Amino acid sequence: MLTPLLVYGIPLDFILFALTLLGVAIFHHHTLAVALTGLAAIIAYKLLFAGFAKFGAGLPGLAHHIEHEWVTLANLFLLLMGFALLSRHFEESRIPDEMPALLPDDWKGGLILLVIVFVLSGFLDNIAAALIGGTVARHVFRGRVHIGYLAAIVAASNAGGAGSVVGDTTTTMMWIDGISPLTVVEAYVAAIVAMLVFAVPASLQQHRFSPIVKDAPSGLRIDWARVAIVAVILLAALTANVTANLKFPALLDALPVLGLAVWAAILVTSVLRRPDWSVMPETLKGTVFLLALVTAASMMPVEKLPAASWQTALGLGFVSAVFDNIPLTALALKQGGYDWGFLAYAVGFGGSMVWFGSSAGVAVSNMYPEAKSVVRWITQGWPIMAAYVVGFFVMLALLGWHPDAPH
C-alpha cells in the first residue's frame, strides 16, 4: 500500500505544486519547461508513493485520473487553439483598424474598450472576449500595450463572465449542477464595482504609456467575409453551450462539446477564408503550459474545502489566482452551503490577479509574451487585486451572505 509523504505535516505533492508555481514566477521566460517538469515530478511522486486518491495507485490510477479529466483538458485545448485563429480572423477583418474612429482619443477610449470586453464576455466565452480585446488594443495603441492594461483586459473578461452561466466554465458548472442562473447573476454586483475600481486607473496608465491613435488609417476596406466567420464561430460556441446544458447535460461529461463546436465552425468556414495557421506553434506552447498546470492542480489531494462561509469564498478568489478554479468549483458544489453569487465572483474574477490564473490570461499572454511575468503583472496590474476585495465587500454589504442549503 502506498503511503503519502508529509513534510512538517504538509503533503509532498502540495510542496511540489508550490515549487512549480514559484518556478513559473521566477523563470518566466521558461514557463513551459518549468510547468512540464513540475507535472512530471508530481506524476512520478504519485506513481511511487501517494497514488491518485479515489482513482487508485500506479499506472491504472493515472489512467483513471486522466479518463476523469480528459474532457476538461480537451475543451481547454480546443478553445485556446481555436480562439487564437478566431482572433486572427478578427484582426484581418480590419475592424480593429477602424476602432480609432469609434473610440474617444483620450484615456476614455481605453475605458470604453474594457467595457466592451466586459459586455462581450457576458454571452461569449471569456477567452474569446479577452482575445478580441487584446487584438483591438494592439491596433489602437500602435502595438504598445501596457502590462497593467493587458491585466485589465483579462480582468474585464473574467468580470463580465462571472455572473453569466454561459460566460465562464465555472458558472456553467453551477448551472449544470442545478444552481439557478438568477442566483449566479448576483455576481454582477461585485463585478461591476470591481470594473469601476480597476478600469479607470488601468486606462489612465495605458494613456500615459501609449495614447490611443487619433484617426483610423485612410482607405480601409472591411473584409466582411472574415467578420461573418468570427460571428459564425462565436455563435457555434454559444449555441453548443446553451443547447448541451439545456438538452443534453450528460454529453458535457462525455465529450468536449464546446471545443468541438468551435473547431467545426473553423473548418466549415475555411472555404471562405483560410485560417492563419502560423499562430498555432506559439499558441500551442501556451496551451500546453496551461494544461500542465491544470493537470497538476487536479492531482492535488484536495478532498474538501474549509466550512462554507463568506470568508472561505473570499479566500478562494486568491487561491484561484494560482490554482485552477474548475476543481475548486467542483469541490464547492459537492460540499454545498455557499452563496453561489459570491463564489461565482470569487473563482471567476480571482484568477485575474496572476497571468496564469485563468485561461483568458494565458490566451492574452500567448498574444503578448511580455505579460508572462508574475512580478510585472502584479505590480503593474495592482488595481485588480484592490478591485477584487472592494467588489466582494460592497456585494457583502449590499446583498448579505445568504447560503443555499446543500442541493
Q: In a few lines, what is going on in this structure?
A:
By secondary structure, the chain is mostly helical.
Helix fraction, binned, reads 55-70%
How many beta strands in the DSSP annotation?
2
Q: What is the radius of gyration?
A: 21 Å
The best one-word shape is: globular
Order of helices and strands: EEHHHHHHHHHHHHHHHHHHH
Membrane topology: Multi-pass membrane protein
Domain Citrate transporter-like: 29-332
Family: Belongs to the NhaD Na(+)/H(+) (TC 2.A.62) antiporter family.
Transmembrane segments: 5-26, 32-49, 70-90, 110-135, 147-167, 187-204, 224-244, 250-272, 284-302, 314-333, 340-362, 382-401
Describe the structure.
- The chain is mainly α.
- It is built from 19 helices and two strands.
- A two-stranded antiparallel ribbon has the order 1-2.
- Strand 1 and strand 2 (10-11) form a beta hairpin.
- Helix 2 (31-50) packs antiparallel against helix 3.
- The radius of gyration is 21 Å and the shape is globular.
- Belongs to the NhaD Na(+)/H(+) (TC 2.A.62) antiporter family.
- InterPro entries: Cit_transptr-like_dom, NhaD-like.
- It comes from Bradyrhizobium brasilense.
- The chain crosses the membrane at residues 5-26, 32-49, 70-90, 110-135, 147-167, 187-204, 224-244, 250-272, 284-302, 314-333, 340-362, 382-401.
- Residues 29-332 form the Citrate transporter-like domain.
